[in-house]
User: Fold this.
Amino acid sequence: MSDDIPNSGGEQFPRTRVNPENLLDPFLGLLERFIATYTDGVRRALGEHELGEIADTVSEALRHQVHELGAFMREGVPRMSGQSAREVNQVLRMQGGDILLRGATQAALGPLSPEKLLGLDEIFNEIKKIIRKLLQLIFPNLPKWFDEFILILDQLFRLLSSLLFPKVKLPLHKSEVQFLRELYELGRLEQLQERVDANGDDDDDV
Assistant:
């Protein structure tokens, strides 16, 4: 069977070949579209409010980070093993992230209420779980900065919500609370080590 599609005049146009295994690019495209729709929705709702300029800055930063995250993931794909590539596609097929993102994007097109923002935050949290799993497959040694990066994404996402509804406090998820605790403990241990090192230097001078 020919791969060419005849037009009404009888000419042949090459059929566009779609790689059924390339599920990552569409997913990342949907993620960027959701973030763009969400940020546009918040800005539109703020209108001429004095916080509009802050929302513009936060929106630009959030869009940029999501775009860079996608670029980072795409760069790692060519170095993946065949097994890892299949597992990435399996995760994307089973987790339903595309369904969540399409639904969230549609919801963000309409008026934003505190209840809707809470729902979008929950969906975003589920998307982050999928992203984490994908990154673990793409990069066996996941960079140490990833948790901090995700935390920044959360803060930017929620900052926009708080600009629109200052009284709405979106709760931290358990994973984020645990990360903050670990970050605090790490900082405390580093301070203790610095004190030990300083005392050791003093002893050497005696």
